[in-house]
Amino acid sequence: MTRLAHLTVREFYARYGKSLHLSLAGPETGLERRITQPELNRSGLALAGFFAYFAEQRIQLIGNAEISYLNCLRKRDRLRRFSDLCWKSIPCIVLAQGHELEPELMSEAARAGVCILHTKMRSMQFLNAATARLLWTFAPTTTEHGCMVDIRGIGVLIRGASGAGKSETVLGLLDHGASLVADDVVRLRHVEGGELVGTASDAGRHHMEVRGLGVINVLAIYGVAAIRIEKVLNLVVTLKSFADLNEVDRLGVDKKHYEILGLQLPLVEIPVAPGRDLAKLIEVAALDTKLKALGHNAAVRFNKRLIQQMREHVDEK
Q1: Does residue 282 register a pLDDT over 60?
Q2: Do 206 and 217 contact (CB within 8 A), yes or no?
Q3: Which of 46, 154, 170, 253 is positioned for an S-S bond with 286, CB 3.0–4.6 A?
Q4: Whether 145 is catalytic
């Protein structure tokens, strides 16, 4: 597992400046300061002189309310309050809705080495958009060996030993209308909300390696509908030979799980043997996972009905 420790203001501006409508409001100073938390902080309490529980590791946002408060202060008090904020270990200050600061305040920020950015976005709009991007950037990531596909809205990671038939199975699923997310190496990110999102590396995206055929371009052969840039992972399928499975749960009552980044995902182990349509089996497993998410578990219902029939048969005797 890897997790980004920090992001510099320069990197934040380069990555998200365009999408967040950011521009430099002052000199290029403080761009190497570090952002270590994905959340943003409204600076109202700090500008009022209250620094208890002040989140100085976060980007500081100044919007209509903060600007209105500063304008209510006398010039000397305004400069002092703003100076107290700037001399904290903050990464940078963002002015929402294109607000501008007085030259004295801009000079104080430059003297403290704090970068000032401004955006045309409204305060809450910018706060939500920037937080979502930072949460994605700081989310823990890992990689899994296998193939990931989207089967009718269900993200499925297909694992197995080399030569188990993963790529051939994925080709069969593409013929059935599935979409390829990643082949060989799947990058997984644990995003806020408890979901795992899978994607491919930039170099391998849209491509698959198939024994006997080499590398194929899935986008060119199957079209854009057969490609997904990213997908939430819902199910893990492991392809195993019959020799590796000592006992197979024929009813599917016993639940198995596969852990990735601390999350327990449903696991289905499918025996591999000549003549078995693995693509069809995995497709059915994905649809069954969707049914279970809706509260319908066929194995549990069948087991309960069987036990009830056995009890009724005993009572009749």
Answers
A1: yes
A2: yes
A3: 154
A4: yes
